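Quick one, tokens below. Sequence please?
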């Protein structure tokens, strides 16, 4: 269990250490509200260095904006009475909440403004001093969380990209089998949406960690290949599955089903095996699998289609059925082309992994 959840365990250790260090530093510097430093350190300590960097930057930007605006409102507008305090609070929160709704980076700004305005009513500090204290506390917590994320059991987003890609490829392998089976056994719209939504969610997750990996790469916090080509290839493969899914909502014509069922089953197995083998190669840092089985299955399918056309069996198809039938062939050919792009992405990752291992050995 510990081996399976080692990434999550490392995160929990980093979060704990970041909280303890932030509290110790806040006490050492005699900050008036150590709670803010501790909370910031916990919030910015994320699963990967790239995500921690993004969280720290966003949190500091939001805090600085909220502190400057809230402090300016508190200094410029007198609010000695309860009514005046309510009016000043509304004036401070309303525009910041609107900005946060437009740009989530400023989501902490309204909270900071509230603290800057209300803390002086309890501690008798000035709004300027309250704003300055908040910025110092958040800066301390943010830097603490970022340093802990970088130095203590650091986790790069690049391995997470590989794991997310492998999960996506495995999802696609299962989806392709269900979609091709729908051509001969039937597939309802609800099942089709379930299949496509699963792939879509896997791609969304990969896109998130891919952005974190690119942030690490651009700031030289971690080395690794560009995640863009791999993500774009998976998106194209997803589009191929969408086309196949549209064709799979209608059964193959009875005249064609006996002739194509076996070749479609062969294609389903060969393509699904390639999806899974590519995912395994990505995770292991190995060279890409061979496309021989995929190409052999496609050749058999193309030969069967040519035979059906020469016998005139495709001419009698209704317009909608003919359109879906030929779209299926196009999608399979396009998927084969995208497999070649996937092959290059896997080979690039394998080359990077081998270089890394050689560097460690040296």
């Amino acid at each position: 269990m510990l081996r399976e959840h080692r990434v999550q365990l490392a995160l929990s250790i980093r979060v704990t250490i970041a909280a303890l260090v932030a509290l110790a530093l806040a006490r050492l510097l005699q900050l008036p509200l150590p709670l803010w430093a501790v909370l910031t350190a916990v919030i910015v300590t994320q699963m990967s260095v790239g995500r921690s960097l993004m969280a720290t930057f966003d949190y500091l930007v939001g805090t600085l904006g909220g502190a400057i605006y809230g402090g300016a409102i508190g200094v410029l507008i007198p609010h000695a009475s309860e009514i005046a305090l309510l009016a000043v609070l509304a004036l401070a929160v309303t525009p910041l909440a609107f900005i946060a709704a437009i740009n989530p980076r400023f989501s902490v700004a309204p909270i900071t403004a509230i603290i800057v305005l209300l803390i002086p009513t309890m501690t008798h500090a000035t709004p300027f001093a309250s704003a300055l204290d908040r910025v110092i506390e958040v800066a301390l917590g943010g830097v603490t969380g970022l340093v802990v994320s970088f130095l203590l059991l650091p986790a790069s987003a690049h391995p997470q990209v590989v794991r997310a890609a492998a999960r996506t490829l495995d999802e696609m392998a299962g989806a392709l089998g269900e979609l091709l089976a729908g051509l001969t056994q039937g597939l309802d719209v609800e099942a089709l949406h379930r299949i496509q939504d699963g792939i879509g969610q896997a791609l969304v997750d990969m896109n998130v960690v891919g952005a974190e990996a690119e942030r690490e790469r651009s700031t030289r916090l971690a080395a690794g290949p560009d995640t863009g080509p791999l993500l774009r290839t998976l998106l194209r493969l997803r589009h191929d599955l969408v086309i196949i899914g549209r064709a799979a909502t209608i059964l193959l014509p009875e005249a064609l089903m006996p002739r194509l069922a076996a070749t479609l089953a062969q294609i389903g197995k060969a393509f699904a095996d390639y999806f899974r083998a590519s995912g395994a190669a990505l995770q292991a840092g190995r060279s890409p699998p061979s496309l021989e089985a995929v190409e052999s299955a496609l050749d058999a399918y193309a030969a069967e289609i040519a035979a059906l056309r020469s016998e005139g069996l495709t001419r009698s198809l209704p317009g909608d059925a003919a359109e879906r039938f030929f779209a299926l062939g196009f999608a399979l050919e396009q998927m084969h082309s995208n497999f070649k792009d996937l092959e290059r992405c896997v080979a690039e990752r394998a080359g990077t992994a081998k270089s890394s291992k050689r560097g460690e050995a040296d």
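The chain is about 80% helix and 0% strand. Residues 157-361 form a domain with the Methane Monooxygenase Hydroxylase; Chain G, domain 1 fold (CATH 1.20.58).
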